[in-house]
Write a structure and sequence with these properties.
mainly beta, disordered C terminus, 1 helix, 14-stranded parallel β-sheet, globular
């Protein structure tokens, strides 16, 4: 019998820390620490890479490459946080952040870029408007 959230046996309900899914929160795709994914990932949810990802990531929300995670390919999202390794271009519509443990070999393009002390970057940084971060050409009016 459960009293005040405690159970009688080893079949205890997992704590929220073990399962961080919150009611009403957007779903997230997670590449686990021991997983390897090869291909293309796109969608409208957050992505967390703890393992290895080879290919392109293009999502409309947030991408996090955790410390120990590795991406070989380009990343495009609204917000990108790198704590692991990325070999490819990083494009963010709003913000890109390289944590102290980050190692990026490729260009970083976003309107706001944060690079922590200790982060490694081999490439260029372009703080650009949202349209340029998406790779779109600026609109031009033609007179006829």
């Amino acid at each position: 019998m459960a009293i005040f959230g405690k159970t009688d046996g080893p079949a205890a309900v997992p704590s929220p820390a073990e399962h961080p899914v919150q009611t009403g929160a957007p779903a997230a795709s997670v590449i686990g620490a021991k997983a390897r994914f090869v291909g293309e990932l796109s969608g409208d949810e957050d992505v967390a890479v703890h393992g290895r990802f080879e290919g392109t990531i293009d999502v409309s929300r947030r991408v996090q490459v955790a410390q120990g995670g590795e991406v070989k390919g380009d990343i495009h999202a609204r917000s990108v946080v790198v704590g692991g390794r990325v070999q490819g271009q990083v494009r963010a519509d709003e913000r890109a952040e390289l944590l102290a443990s980050a190692s990026v070999q490729g260009d970083v393009r976003a309107p706001k870029v944060v690079i922590a002390e200790g982060a490694q970057l081999q490439g260029s940084v372009a703080m650009s408007s949202t349209a340029s971060a998406r790779g779109a050409a600026p609109e031009r009016s033609e007179e006829k």
